[in-house]
Structure formats: structure tokens, C-alpha cells
# Entry
Amino acid sequence: MEYLKIENLRKTFGGVVAVDNISFEVEQGALLGIIGPNGSGKTTTVNLITGFLTPDSGKVMFKGRDIAGLRASKITNLGIGRTFQMVKPFYRLPAFKNLVVPLFSPRVKRMGGHYGEKDTLALDILEDIGFERDSAVPYKPASILPHGYLKRLEMARVIALQSELIVFDELYSGLTLAEVASISPMIEKLIEAGKTIIMVEHRLKELFKIAHRVMVLDQGKKIAEGSPREIMKQPSVKKAYLGVEL
Amino acid sequence: MLLSVLVYGFINSVILAMVALGFSITFGISRVANFSHGGFYILGGIFTWYGLIKLGMPYFLSAGLSIIIIGALGALMYKVILIRLRGLELSEVIATLSLGIVILELLRGLGVFGYEFRNPVFMDGSVDILGVGVGIQRIIIVCAGALLLILLHFFVHHTKMGLAFRGVAQQEHTALSVGINPDLVSMLSLAMGSVMCALSAVLILPLGVISVDEGYDILIKALAVCIIGGLESTLGVLVAAFIIGYIEVLTSMYISSALTSVVPLACMLGILLVRPSGIFGKSKEIEERV
# Structure
């Protein structure tokens, strides 16, 4: 049984075909990168898998069960977590309280929970992800945190959720090279811990260092899939990305 | 005279706050403006009256059951009607307003009119406050109002469900992504607002007769308080209730009691001119709104 198997996924908005019969698989414990130019259907694909959109047709088989069209909160509780490209914290809650919300979720409860008091647990997770423990940062409302912290908070949320399949939607966008360099090892650590990861990413160089496989989308269609090394050589990829035949 | 303005203004303000709180709570969590608030209010009063007078139930039982029924009605309204209209704000308003009018006019058609429709006060008698005689029922209302506010604050800030409610209110997508079902939360927010609406009816209606027109009046008052205070702000509800509450009492004492019912609307219009998002509402720049 495949871990995650997407079959002929299709989604249209009015007359625009955003995702056009895409099929792919992700093995348990693998890191799949999804790349492609703007408007190629990457985020739509993410939304279809995580339940934020309902596909027109096609299947999303997760551990043998078709989850296409289920409510997003239900899919979360089945073990699929996601982050948002545009950060979406609970703005008026302090950073650590942003993690207390997922710590209370049915998913965490079913997984046997984390031990200890929720506030402390939230602070522990934040510390692991680079929030200075003894500073005021974890206690500040999310609305006044800098972008780099908010991206980490997005990541911290799926860690708190104990999701087994994590979908990062452009986690690296808007981050400095130094910030990416500090986050990449955390993603590798998640893989070592047995998580399966899908990364939608524009920062190809950083992605190719950690991805096991890469899938390329263009205008809603899958145009290539392979190891990062293979993908880099593909002429069709260069064309889709740069608009020229090299 | 001044002292009685002070005392009765305070009581009147608490009454306004209680009436508006249910409307504000529902809107603050789920963005549903429940315009059937006035209908639910009178229905809560009538159910209590029916249980108490017609069926001979004990007061607290009849009142308790009414509150539960109205809460369930709020949840049902979300589950059956509003869930299909989510995001269509105008349709939500039309739907809830229609339901409210149907309830009120149905009651009118069934003959709810006159002195006979009256819930007794919980306890007879009056006490002297600052030299002003105040009925015990009014004292009970003020105490209950204070207790309700404390409970509400505790619920929102110190319980798991309160946190989920705040999550949905602040960022619905993220709430979904951490496993919270916003439809369930919205339904509960409707139930909660309706329970508070019925509770205020049970407490406040014994001060007068239960009349259909009172239902419309209550809706306008709740709306005025919420708009002046800022729609989702509990602090705003309190402040606005005290502003309108005192202006109402001053108007009826020094100008004319016939003008009292104009006060909330006049204040609301005034605030909409000066500060459209209300005193504590998040003000939006014009550019943001267009």
C-alpha cells in the first residue's frame, strides 16, 4: 500500500484549469519537492491534498483511504499538517499560545499527547525552533513578530500537531539565506524522525540540497519528476522556469 | 434626583449590556450578526411564562428549560439555515432577520398581547441604595450581569474551548489547519449567544410585560450598543451600554420619556458618522474598505 498516492487530480476555477490530471506518489519518510513557475498549480495541489479545496475529480489516497473532499480539520486530525505561504498566525494571541491551540487538538490527544503542561510544552517547541527562551519574544503577540519568526511559528505549529505528513507551502519565501540555513537542518531532523514531507518551494538551490525527489508543475500539468540531479538536467524544466529553450 | 439618575442609569446600563452581550459574542466569534435576537428574547420570555403559568412548573425549571430551548434554536438555525449561507453576509442578515420577524409576528398572531403576559419578579421588595428605592429584581439583574461577565471572561481566556473560539475568530484557515472545525465553533457561538439572549430575557422581562414590540426594541438596542462599542469588543459593549444607558435615563428624566426609544438609534447614527467601526472596533481606513 502506498503511503500517499495522488490519482488524476483535477481542479478548475471557472474556465481555468488550475490542476490538470496530476498523479504522483510519496513514500513514507521521503521528502518530495514541488516546483514550478507562478500559477503552475502548486498551492492549489497543496490545498486539494489538505482539504482546503475540493477536487473536481481524482483521488487523494492517504494510507489506503481516499481523503479527497474531506473537511480540512478532519484531514489534519488524520495526520496531515500544513503551513501557509502567507503566514497566518493567530495574530492577537502571544506566540506560545499559538502553539497551545494545536496542542489541544484531537490529533495530539490521539497520539497520546505530549507530557507536561501545555504552556511549557509550547515554549519548549518554540525554543527548539529558534525562539530565545528567556527573552520576551515567545510572549509577544504574533502581530508584532518579524517575518522570520512568523515562518518559524508556521513550522512550529505542525510540529506541535505531531503531523506525520507535513506540507510546507513556500516555507523559505521571504527568508534570508542565514534563516534558511538554520531552518533546513530542522527539516532534515523531521525526516530523521520519520516524518514524510512535501515542500512547495521557489528557492531551488536550498530545496535540491534536502529533497529526495522533485516534481515539476507547469500550467497545472506535471511535466517532470525525478531526483534533484535529474530534474536539474531536464530541458523542459529550464524552459518552464526561464521561458527559454537552453 | 441626581442620585436616582446615578442609580437607575447604572441599572439601565447593565440591562443594555446584558441584552447586547449575546449578539456581540456570536458576532465576535463567527461573524454572524444574529438579527433574530429580539425574536429569541421574547420567545425565551414566553416559554418561561408558559411553563410557569400554564404548566405550573417551578420558576427556575421553566426558565432553565426556556434558556436551553433557545440555545438549541440558535444552534439549529446555524445548522439548518446559516451553514448554507456562510460568507454571504447580506443573506445571513436577511435570513436571521426574517426568522426573528416570523417568530415575533407569529407570537402576535397567537395573541401575545396584554397585561396577562407577564413573568413575576423572582423576589418582591426593594432596598435603599444611596437613598433611592430599588426593586430586588433590579439588584438581581446587576449581580447576574456582573457574574456573567466574569464567567465569560474566564471562559474565553482560561478554557480550551475559549481558546479554540478565539482561534477561529482570529484566523479561520489556521484554525482549520490545526484540526478545529469552524462550523462547529460557529454553531456553538450561535448557541451561546442565544443562551445569553434568553437568560437576559428571563432576568429582565419581569420588570414589564412581555410584548412583541419589545422584541423589536431589544434588537435595536442590542445593535446600537454593539455598533457604538465596536462590533466584536466586549469592553466596547460595556462602555457603549453605559453611554446609552445614562443618556436614556437622563432623557427620560429631564426631557421626555417618549424620546427614550430614540436615544440608542440617535447615538448609533452619531457614532457611524464620526467613527464607523465603533469606539473599540478596529478602525479601517477608507482605502481599505473600498
